[in-house]
Amino acid sequence: MTARLAPSAALAVSLTASAALLPALAVLGELRPTWVALAAYAALCAAVGRRSRPPAAPLIGLAAWLFHNGFVENHHGTLTASAPEALHLLLLAATALAPALLPGRPGTGSPRTGRTPYDLAA
User: Fold this and answer.
1) Cα separation, 54 vs 77, whole angstroms
2) pLDDT tens, position by position, 86-107
3) Taking the chain, what is the end-to-end CA distance rounded to the nearest angstrom?
4) Closest by Cα among 35, 103, 91 to 58
5) Cα 38 to chain center, whole Å?
6) Please, are residues 108 and 116 in contact by the beta-carbon 8 Å criterion?
7) How many whole angstroms separate alpha carbon 77 and alpha carbon 94?
8) How many Å apart are CA 91 and CA 107, to the nearest integer?
9) 15-73 pLDDT per residue, tens
10) What is the DSSP-derived secondary structure letter of residue 32?
C-alpha cells in the first residue's frame, strides 16, 4: 500500500525537485521567462501533486513558483509580485491540486473498501 505524502513531506520534495530542475533548464538554455520553463515547473507540480495529499497543493505550487520566479524570471533570486506572477502561482498550485484529487491506483486504498480517503465518489 502506497501512502500519499503529508504536506510537510510534499513541500520538502517539491523544494528539492524545483532546485534540481534549474540545472536541467540551464543545460537546455531555458533559464529565461518562456513557456518551456513554466511547463517544466507545472509538470513537476503535477508529478509531486499526484503523490501528495490535496492540502499540500498550495505548498507544492509555492515551492515551484519560488524557484521559477526567483531564478527563471529574475535570474538573481529576486522575487517580484505582479499580476502575471500571481497567475503563475495560481497555475502551479492548481496543477498540483488536480492530480492530488484523483483517486488512488487500484490496490492502494483500504483493503476492505478499495478506496483511498481522497476518493471523490462516496
Assistant:
1) 28
2) 899 999 999 999 999 988 655 4
3) 21
4) 91
5) 11
6) yes
7) 24
8) 31
9) 999 999 999 999 998 888 889 999 999 999 999 999 999 999 999 999 999 999 999 98
10) S
